[in-house]
Specification:
Layout lengths: L13 E8 L16 H12 L4 E6 L5 H11 L6 E4 L9 H4 L2 E4 L5 E7 L11 H17 L4 E7 L5 E3 L4 E5 H7 L5 H12 L3 E5 L15 E3 L2 E5 L11 E5 L2 E6 L2 H6 L3 H17 L9 E6 L6 E3 L4 H11 L19 E4 L8 E3 L2 E6 L7 H17 L4 E6 L1 H5 L9 E4 L1
Parallel strand pairs: 1-2, 2-3, 5-6, 8-9, 11-16, 13-14, 18-19
Antiparallel strand pairs: 1-20, 4-5, 7-8, 10-11, 12-13, 15-16, 17-18
Helix pairs in contact: 1-2
Length: 416
């Protein structure tokens, strides 16, 4: 089934983008003073998108519809290009991962891939926590009027897969194996080829170190205090590498100097260097070497998270879903009872490509080091060089990063 259908690349024309609107807003209580929360960022993204594409806004609670409409209006979004729906979704923030994958046939007909969903590998498929999240893809497909579907045993998330539209698919090997225990990489690859009609799968060994399970263990310590991950997708491709054209990969980069001075960047460099080696050894669908472009990794940022911060309550709930005994991380490290030090999984690779537009991530804000601003500018320059025919807008993504995602995670493209 589906041997003439294909998955278009993100840089191909699109008809719509799905965005969520959820109760989550300010991960840190002090963000309320500036208003820089998830909802303001979502409204900003929606305003940018409605200049280029239709927006499907999913309010995960019907009580949020009026709030969402008012916020989008205030941000300057064209509400004539916004369709508001109310699909419940337990995780909610990141439809990139459990929305519908749309395939396009040679005659323009469409079908969708019904992947399995385990809440980032935190639960078994069918666990009550994952049921609503698993249903989102079907609801999304119904919204789009796509009834024909391809079923599969594969458990996978949209943020861990990328196609170049010309026969290649790229994913993280460790992540796909984690989501599909008992399956071999060869079995997973064969299923990916069948589902997405690609001729080659490029396997990068691991995701970034700061995108490992948020409760796995500390990233580093500062004066003996553990620095914890604030949230994570548990190893997604869109934190480390992206296709930006057929046979062209944008890959994060950590310098020797950065690795030497950072306990977080050192393991990131090892993993990204391994990804680089895998890409050098790979070829495109025609057997030609890949073009590899590099983009910096953001500066390491560590924040204090107090018991008054909403992020703290979400993080404690995530901890309760793990197998860690008591108030310890999975490696046995005790979790402090007072304020916590946390570092978000930041990346310049977690950008959205749509019609005439690229929405990237930036991190500097008043009070943070100037080195962060310099990295923001360098990343924006790379994106503008890669996409000269698209507007590149960098948005303040920390509210999403604290919750383990980013701009790309927060959106789901619908190919035209």
């Amino acid at each position: 089934m589906g041997d003439t259908f294909r998955a278009p690349a993100e840089f191909e024309p699109q008809s719509a983008v799905l965005l969520p609107w959820t109760p989550l807003d300010f991960p840190l209580a002090r963000m309320r003073e500036s208003g820089a929360g998830v909802k303001a960022l979502t409204a900003q993204i929606a305003a940018l998108l409605t200049r280029r594409v239709q927006v499907h806004l999913n309010c995960t609670d019907p009580a949020l519809v009026d709030e969402a409409r008012a916020a989008l209006t205030s941000a300057g979004a064209d509400l004539d290009r916004v369709t508001i729906v109310t699909f419940p979704d337990e995780i909610g923030l990141y439809p990139r991962d459990n929305g519908a994958d749309i395939l396009i046939g040679p005659d323009g007909s469409r079908r969708w891939v019904e992947l399995r969903w385990s809440g980032y590998g935190l639960h078994e498929v069918g666990h009550p926590f994952t049921v609503e999240g698993a249903a989102l893809a079907g609801r999304h497909a119904d919204l789009l009027g796509v009834a024909d579907k391809v079923e599969t045993w594969l458990v996978s998330e949209g943020g861990d897969r990328e196609v170049d539209g010309a026969g290649l698919l790229m994913a993280i090997a460790a992540t796909e194996l984690d989501r599909n225990p008992g399956r071999t990489l060869a079995e997973i690859e064969a299923e990916l080829r069948r589902l997405y009609q690609v001729s080659k799968v490029i396997w990068l060994p691991e995701g970034t170190y700061d995108d490992d399970c948020a409760q796995s263990g500390p990233l580093t310590t500062i004066d003996g205090v553990p620095v914890l991950r604030s949230g994570s997708a548990r190893g997604h491709l869109d934190e480390v590498a992206r296709f930006v054209a057929p046979g062209t990969v944008l890959l994060a980069e950590v310098t020797d100097e950065e690795a030497h001075h950072s306990d977080i960047h050192a393991p990131n460099k090892e993993r990204i260097d391994a990804a680089y080696a895998a890409l050098l050894a790979a070829t495109d669908a025609g057997g030609h070497p890949l073009t590899i472009v590099r983009i910096p990794m953001p500066e390491t940022m560590v924040f204090e998270v107090t018991s008054d911060d909403p992020l703290r309550h979400e993080w404690e709930a995530w901890l309760a879903t793990t197998d860690a005994p008591g108030r310890t991380l999975l490696d046995g490290t005790p979790v402090p009872d007072g304020d916590l030090l946390m570092a978000p999984a930041a990346s310049y690779c977690n950008f959205l490509i749509t019609n005439g537009l690229v929405i990237g991530q930036r991190y500097w804000e008043p009070g943070l080091p100037d080195a962060i601003s310099a990295k923001d500018d360098a990343a924006a320059a790379v994106l503008r060089d890669l996409f000269p025919d698209r507007e590149v807008v960098m948005v303040p993504s920390l509210p999403l990063n604290f919750y383990g995602g980013g701009v790309h995670c927060h959106t789901r493209n619908v190919p035209a």
